[in-house]
Amino acid sequence: MAKLPGNQPLQSHDGRLLTTLAGINRLADPEKQAIYAGLLPPRLLERLQINQQTLCNPAGQRLVQVIAPEGLALVRIEVRVQPDDHDLVFFVELADTQHHQMEFAFCIICDPAAPRFAVDVTEAGAVNYFTSHGRNVPEELRAMAVGLYPNQTRRGLRLFGEFFPRLERFTDSLGMEMITAEPLSYDNAIRYERYGFDYLTGKRLMLEINREFQPGGRLQRRMDGSSPFRMPGRERTVRGRSWAVHDGILDEPWDGVRIYKMIGVHAGIDTFPGREQEE
Asked: Does residue 177 lie in a domain region?
């Protein structure tokens, strides 16, 4: 049963209660695509002149792809400026969990007009899978210089605050009580805190990072200019810390951080109080 005020349980056109992505994926394509299209931020549709019913632009080009195969408990939504573009403006991947929760696996919202930085490939041009297969330090330096965070190829559109409430209401309409996620970087974890997430695992690490970046702490002492990603003073901002963590300043790899959001509840977690604000 839906919990959020004014929200209703999700039903198919023929009145069947829908409680999982797998259930939605069993519907006919037009119906399931209409359901998933409801997750798209209206300002994104307006910016790209996408009709929410047809998912096409005024020229009739299909700019939204909903990948939700029958028999699988996941959905991927891809939005491009042009149908044959390699880069995505918007991408989200969701999956059912065995505990009837929503797994918020991945999200990208990029400004297609912004400069692109090839941080997603190695210097040799091979896909690096979020640096697990190597880095492109020259491109990372260029990205950092214009204010991007680790793994960002372009600046964002500042639409996550419009998208996430839609995801929460959608999750609630399926009768699920929790959204889970795995932040891919330190700044992701901090950003999710702002939206009410708490930690399944990794809270101790987040608190330790904050403690050791304080004056005299182990990590603060390592902000010694030995790398462009470890310049003194930058530990006072989320961006500065995230680039340092990305650069391997921790004694362990960034891994094993799992977070969750209870529907309708803001956990009030802040593992970096007193941070300096960034542009």
From this structure: yes
Which residues are 63's β-sheet partners? Answer: none
- 89 assigned to some structural domain: yes
- Domain hosting 35: range is 21-205+255-262
Tens-digit pLDDT profile for residues 112-155: 999 999 999 999 888 888 787 789 999 999 999 999 999 999 99
The count of residues in the chain is 279
Q: Of 264 and 255, which is predicted with more confidence?
A: 264
Overall number of domains in the chain: 1
Average pLDDT of span 160-168: 98
276 in a domain, yes or no?
A: no
pLDDT digits (tens, 9 = 90+) for 205-232: 999 999 999 999 999 999 999 999 999 9
3-class SS string, the chain: CCCCCCCCCCECCCCCECCCHHHHHCCCHHHHHHHHHCCCCHHHHHHHCCCCCCCECCCCCECEEEECCCCCCEEEEEECCCCCCCCCCEEEEEEECCCCCEEEEEEEEECCCCCCCCCCECCCCCECCCCCCCCCHHHHHHHHHCCCCCCCCCCECCCHHHHHHHHHHHHHHCCCCEEEECCCCHHHHHHHHHCCCEEEECHHHHHHHHHHCCCCCHHHHHCCCCCCCCCCCHHHCHHHHHHHHHCCCCCCCCCCCEEEEECCCCCCCCCCCCCCCCC
Q: What is the pLDDT of residue 143?
A: 98
The pLDDT of residue 88 is above 80 = yes
